[in-house]
Each structure stands twice: as structure tokens, then as C-alpha cells.
Amino acid sequence: MKTATTATAATAPGPAGQLDALASLCKASADPLRLQVLRVLCKDSFGVSELCALFDMRQPALSHHLKVLAHAGLVATRREGNSIFYRRSSRGQRAELEALQSRIFESVDQIELPPALARRLDRLYRAREENSRHFFRDNAHKFRQQQDLIASYDQYADTVAQMVRDAPLPRRDTALEVGPGDGAFLLELAPLFRRVVALDNAALMLAQARERSLSAGVDNIEFIHGDTGSGQLDGLSADCVVINMVLHHTPAPGRILADVAARLAPDGVVLVTDLCSHDQGWARENCGDLWLGFDPQELGRWAQEAGLEDSASVYLAQRNGFQIQVRLFRRA
């Protein structure tokens, strides 16, 4: 992931640099609009055009505020194709300013968003999700070919299956797979758990997974059409949650991790397979990707905010230049 360079004032040595860094931090946090931007960036990152729509502002005006926040080290950027996405910075401040930065974030997160802004944010998430759902609806017939453009199932399936088998689980009662695609990995989970739940918000993909399971004679899989916030998951206590190559298709990956962590049984695990960050913008149109992969630290930060801790990690390099991260998380 490419991040913005830290401002000179925040890195210059000596007392003068310390004063400049402190002044930049205070200046950046002394504006109500910039505080609202930090609040919106709490658990997600947004492109400049998305932020302009959220705050109903022209890009030049909003870009000035984003530049101030970046200069103070409060936000960082990453490039996805031709777009720049902003997120809150988890580091980059001087050590002596990290406590103040954390207090600013903590205070901002306690502020409720204005109703109009909250409605626009909700519409943005719905639009992201709808775009992703439409892609898989229109491309369900060629799901495997689209997936193989970046990382074929065969390139990571054995590693993921082995991590599930090796996971130190006290029970193997229930497994949940989020976004099972055509159902290939469900056939790996079914022999390992008494009950498997397959959750997908794309009806056609779920139908493919069900047909594949029936053809294989597997009868311990329950299929649910919905997302991780669905009430149909109420009461579920999963010993293992698997999310294979799904998060880069979702509008709010951090929210997905928080949702599944809430459904996790004591001592349960969450296994995430996804792409490391890359700059292949064509993947958006051709593969329905909303995110061009994730920096491992960013994925780890979202997991930590969901109450999970890193347990094991494997990185798989692909011949086409992409890299896959397979991450096992446990309850913190």
C-alpha cells in the first residue's frame, strides 16, 4: 500500500520540529469539518469523490482540508488505479504525539454523525454493495474464470484447508463460510464440522454452491441468502469463520470482520484469505473488485478493532505478480 509521505514538520529533529508537529496536529484538529472527516474515516477508507459526495463539497475545497490532515499525520493515502483513497493514520506521528492523536480519535468517535451525513454515508455503502451484488449476479456463470484472472482457487485452497485442520479449536461443531462462491471450499469444511453455514448475498452464487453440495452428496450445509448483518444469523455461535477472497468485494471490510467476530464462539477462529495491496485497476471492472487488495497491517488493524488478534499468517506469491495473504485470527 502506498502512503503519503509524512510532512517535514512532523519528522524534523529537535525542539523546532517538535513544536511544528504539535502545531500541525492542533491546527488540523481545530476545525469541525476536519473532525467530521476523521469521524467518517473511523473504520473505512474513501476516495476523494466519495468524500466530496458525503460532505456535499467541491473537490478543491475538500482537498485543502485533506491536505491539512495529511500534513499533521492524521490521515494516510493509498492509490487504487487512478483514484486516491484516504484512511485514518495508525502511525506516523512522533512518539510524544501518539497519545494526543489517540485521544483525538477517541473523542471524535464518540460524536454522533449529523443525520444528513449519516444518511449519505448509508447510501454510499448501499451503492457499493449494490454494485458488487450486480456484478456477481451478471457474472455468476463465469465466476471461476473471473476469479482465475487474479488468483485461482487451486492456488490457495490447500493452504487454507490445512490451516483450518491445524487450527487449535476445542470444538468443531459449527463453521460459517461468508461468500462461498461456487461452493468449492464448502466441500472442505463439511467433513471437518458437524454443521456448516454458507452465507451469500448473491442468490445465483448461493444456488451454484447448493447445487455443487447436493451433487457431492453433502447434507450438513445450511444455505442462507443474506449478509453478515442478517438476522438469520442470530444465535449462531461459529467455531470457525472462513472468508475466502471476499473482503475486496465488500464495501466495508472492517464491518464484516466485526460482524463475524460477534458470531464467534469462545476460542473460535476467523480465517481470512485475500489479496495483498496492488495497483491493477483493471480488476475493478473485470473482477468486481471494490478494493485493490489490502495492506497486511490494515487488515490486522481492522481485525484488532473487531476484537481479534493475529494467530498465524501465510503469504503466497503468484506468478502473475499478485500476492495472497492467508490470515488466522483468534479472539483477543
Give a quick summary of the entry.
The chain has helices spanning 8-11, 14-28, 32-40, 48-55, 59-71, 95-109, 115-139, 143-148, 157-166, 186-189, 203-215, 253-262, 282-287, 296-305; strands at 46-47, 75-80, 83-88, 174-178, 195-200, 221-225, 238-244, 264-275, 308-317, 323-331.
Range of helix content: 40-55%
How far the N terminus sits from the C terminus, by CA atoms, comes to 26 Å
Largest sheet: 7 strands, mixed
| Overall 3D shape | elongated
| Number of beta-strand segments | 10
DSSP helical segment count: 14
**Order of helices and strands, N to C?**
HHHEHHEEHHHHEHEHEEHEHHEE
The helix/strand class is: alpha/beta
The unreliable regions are: 1-11
Q: How would you characterize the overall build of this protein?
A:
- With 332 residues, this protein is of the alpha/beta class.
- 45% of the residues lie in helices and 20% in strands.
- It has 14 helices and 10 strands.
- It has helices at 8-11, 14-28, 32-40, 48-55, 59-71, 95-109, 115-139, 143-148, 157-166, 186-189, 203-215, 253-262, 282-287, 296-305; strands at 46-47, 75-80, 83-88, 174-178, 195-200, 221-225, 238-244, 264-275, 308-317, 323-331.
- The strands form 2 sheets. A 7-stranded mixed β-sheet has the order 6-5-4-7-8-10-9, with helices on both faces. Strands 1-3-2 form a 3-stranded antiparallel β-sheet.
- α2 runs antiparallel to α5, α4 (48-55) packs across α7 and α12 packs across α14.
- Mean pLDDT is 84; it is low at 1-11.
